[in-house]
Amino acid sequence: MAGMELSFGVAQQQTLSPQMQQSLQLLQTPVAELRQMVSAELASNPVLEEEPPGLESHDLEEVQGDQPEGGEESREQPNEYSLQDEWRDYLPQSASPAPYSAEDEERRRFLFDSQTSRQTLRDFVIEQAAGFPPDELRLVEFIAGSLDEDGYLRVPLSELSSSGGDSLLALEKALTKVREFEPAGVGAADLADCLLLQLSRRGEGNGLAARILRHHLPQLARHRYDEIAKDLGVHVSDVAAASRLISTLEPKPGRPFAEADEQGVIPDLIVIRGGGDQEGFVVRLNEEDLPRLRISSEYKDLLADRGENEELLLYLRDKIRGARVFLRSLQQRQQTLLAIGNQIVSRQEEFFKRGASALKPLIMAQIADAVGLHVTTVSRAVSGKYMETPQGLFEMRYFFTPGFQNSDGTAVSNEMVKGAIREMIGRESQRSPLSDQEIVVELEERGLKVARRTIAKYREQLGILPSHLRKTC
Known about the structure:
This protein has 473 residues and is of the alpha+beta class.
């Protein structure tokens, strides 16, 4: 009879230190979020301070040296080295014997192209109605499609009933269920209704906060606590406590589902034409409004004085160590991004002069080899980041594109192929539009051999319908 057996074993497993996790997080964070992270670190770590404008940054000196007297950190971390070295230890270098084939790049490109977009509030609401009867599910879909970006249903149900031909009673029942969905407050008619729905979820639907929302929201907005207290016959401190509870509620339930580009895209890198003695193009980091941090000399001196308060010394040493790691991670992120940007500009210079028609094939492995990093690191660095160029604003991964071999032996990018497809379809006869196979033949006549399924994929990416749907009588 088989029984249970307890056994022991030893195995090696690579794990990421908290410092390494922070470093990789900073590397893949776009500049808009980076500003928030830097500000948050500045607020949470008292030994960090913002460098006054006009002064040269001393971050590098503080990161690489300037240890406290007595060598406390040196004794604790004798093997500390740069994050660049840590990345090289964690991620094997691209100069490894294993070749990086075109198939590898095609798989990576497929992953990029297959990334799903942010889930919408409408989809999230409908998802929660899974298992509803078909008629009820249709009403939920109708209501979800009528929500505004904040998650409110501001259109009267009577109007929805008239436009959709559904009974008002059926819509009311469906809305009642939607208002029980996540996020709390969805389907509310106005702000007070939204906040009351959230209070009910917390079991506070009949408390003081709910009474204030029902009858005294304008006074609450103007912080007239004394008026509210007098009218409700309660103490001002109770009104203040209810106000604090209300402030924890979400006035816009749809906020997490808002489109990321509503606030506009902020480029991480800016490419400009060189002036004066500089030829070609210059790549600059977008550091506008990014606080420049340094470690406060006051705290370093306090640690160096080595007073008798051991608890304070341990606290300061921990905070200074954390500040150094953060500064080093931030510096490494900027250096890596700038190095990658310079390589892109160097290899795609004709694009920056002439536009998309001059884009050359480029894979991440080439950039990784040039900057001495692994392909995965390059992938992290460019993900979700943008570059402002003389040709417009482009996502950095736009410049990484597989290519095709021309008949004369030169390589052309898939963007050039897409441009050729767009141009051919733009001049086709509407009575006899070009099929995908006819596009294949015409491209072959131009010296480009492209598979028909590739033409179909590019046509879909360009938002162009199949030939039978483009045909007009």
